[in-house]
Amino acid sequence: MTGEEVKRKLREQGITLKEWANARGYPYYLVSRVICGTIKGNFGLSHQVAVELGMKPASGTVPEESGPTVRR
Length: 72
What we know:
Blueprint: H1 3-13, H2 17-24, H3 28-36, H4 44-53
């Protein structure tokens, strides 16, 4: 899910970014930056935010749309 899709979904539910962040104990600025793409959400708290928003898969999981990974 992209940042725009996340914003649209929250808007449809009548939830602001600030409300979403506060309800989960995340700083608003961090949630906003993850959604905008300023912070990639590759690890740490930003990764947790991206996972909860549906922008990234949880660590150790393979995204559904990707095929099997081949290791040599």
